Amino acid sequence: MTTDRFGAIVFTDIVGFTELTELHGDDLALELVEQQARTVRGLLPRTGRVVKELGDGLLLWFDELVDGVLTSIALQRCFDGPTVQSADTEVPLWVRIGVHWGAPRWRGDDIIGRDVNLTSRITALAAAGETICSGAVVDAWPDVGAPRVEFVPLGPTFVKGIAEPVRTYRIGE
Amino acid sequence: MTPAPRVTVTSRTRRVSVDAAGEGGIVQVEGGQARALPDGSFEVRGDRTGSGTIVVRCPPGSHVSVGTLTGPVETHGPLGEVRIVTETGKIRVERAERVDARTRSGSVDVRWCAGECRLVTASSHVEVGSAGSVSIASQSGSVAAGSIGGGQVRTVSGSIHIGLATDPSPASGLRVMSTSGGVEITVPQGSAHVARLTSSSGRIRSAVPSSAVPSSGEPGESPAAAAIEVRTTSGSIRVERR
């Protein structure tokens, strides 16, 4: 295991995946997952990559914070609109996204540790179409040289397994 | 005039009750410890070993943020901006200028919100008495709103019941999306609403004129009409006048 370098950790998660699979079957579930993966891979900058696929979600890594946040915003714009079709069923692809700035431990190409757990937990706070980030993202956001992004505070947030509350923000348009 | 204070309350498991009945800039706390911060705001923490309710009394119009893991949160009296995040606690807001409230499984009940009311849950029931506009997202929980100006509501399987307020402006449209949840919308008699309703397999009934285009201002659409756009996959849609 190696330690150290900071980057943007991003989770994407299909909203209502279990219910949609139950309602519309495995073929639609497969198409939802594939469309999410295609969209993400199509928008990744050179500094970003898919760490791993997690059933109905993806764990992403970005060397640059700005790339992680801007890619998340771009992803939500892409997901807002198109529907996924399988046989005669058409459903929207709704995705929630969480972003955190941290230094996880590396195990080969995988990342693990508190920062990854925290990212997963704050992702669960997001509604379909929303991106939620931690206070670490806001603190590390460059004052100059980066596009203006609106970070709307949600207040102190307790997440399971982490003792102290963390600051969370909704990334606005 | 003293500006309304900002109050932040955190407690993992205890019930939090915020009462907008204080006077001046005074914030009083029972069952927790309050600390005044240099920027003029107040931070309230529940005693680690304590139990029971944390009661916070603050002036009307105060801006309040509350974070709990399992503790329920309720507010009484007129507040400014209210932000609540809890994992499983129930949420009840009596009166606020703006609301952002999130819970995984606790129910949400907002009685009156002047501006935007943004509510997010996974499986619990959401109820709004009256709001200027809403942004509500729930997976399987049902949504009921008595009187709103417009906004957006999304559920995966939860049912949706919306009452629209009188005198809509073209800007105060309503966008509702659900995959399998049924949608019922009630509009005032004589209001200038138009509807664009789409369901793959659900039944559609509407008492308002249909619109071929989703947004107002398009050719052929009345400039005075507020648009109701509803999309479901298998849920039924009913728009009626009260």
Task: Furnish the topology, listing elements before pairings.
The complex is a heterodimer of chains A (about 170) and B (about 240).
Chain A: E1 7-14, H1 17-24, H2 26-43, E2 48-54, E3 57-62, H3 65-79, E4 83-86, E5 89-92, E6 95-102, E7 105-107, E8 110-112, H4 114-123, E9 131-134, H5 135-140, E10 151-157, E11 166-171
Parallel strand pairs in A: 6-9
Antiparallel strand pairs in A: 1-3, 1-6, 2-3, 4-5, 7-8, 9-11, 10-11
Chain B: E1 6-11, E2 16-19, E3 28-30, E4 32-36, E5 42-46, E6 54-57, E7 63-68, E8 73-86, E9 91-103, E10 108-121, E11 126-138, E12 143-148, E13 151-155, E14 160-164, E15 174-178, E16 183-187, E17 193-199, E18 204-206, E19 226-232, E20 237-241
- CA distance, first residue to last residue of chain B: 44 Å
Rg of chain B computed from alpha carbons, rounded to a whole number of angstroms: 20 Å
Helical proportion of chain B, percent range:
under 10%
| Greatest interface and its participating residue counts | A-B, 31 and 32 residues
Structural class of chain B: mainly beta
What summary fits the major beta sheet of chain A? 7 strands, mixed
The radius of gyration of chain A is: 16 Å
Number of helices of chain A: 5
Shape of chain A: globular
CATH topology group of chain A: Alpha-Beta Plaits
Spatial order of strands in the largest sheet of chain A: 2-3-1-6-9-11-10
CATH superfamily of chain A: Nucleotide cyclase, GGDEF domain
Oligomer category: heterodimer
Percentage of helical residues of chain A?
A: 25-40%
Strand content of chain A: 25-35%
